[in-house]
Amino acid sequence: MHKSIATSTILEHELSELRLLVERQTGVVLDCPNSALAAHVAEFIEAQELDSSTALLERLRSAEQDPSTLPSLLDGLIIAETPDFFAIPEL
């Protein structure tokens, strides 16, 4: 799946639901722009060979979900944000 196609198919309400699922299940608040979250989710969907963002949400909502899905999704997102944490701001 082409990245730009995958990103454009992730709807605003799906991103909102994903943010809520993550916060409820982990306590982590995803405070990043929708564009950054959508790009990360699109890459994750492609890497996991899922059909759509709907399939990802169904997997995360499922009682029988693979317990590694959410941590895997968050690892890429949190690690991508970490390098700026230690950056020294220019004066």
Q: Can you walk through the features of this model?
A:
The structure is a single chain. This protein is mainly alpha-helical. It contains 5 helices and no strands. The protein has helices at 3-8, 12-26, 34-47, 53-61, 69-81.
The total count of strands amounts to 0
Computed over alpha carbons, the radius of gyration is: 14 Å
| Helix content percent band | 55-70%
Shape summary: globular
Computed structural class: mainly alpha
The SSE order reads HHHHH
Beta-strand share of residues: under 5%
Q: Figure out the total of helices.
A: 5
Largest sheet: none
Mean pLDDT value: 81
**Which regions are unreliable across 5 or more consecutive residues at pLDDT < 50?**
1-8
Distance linking N and C termini:
43 Å
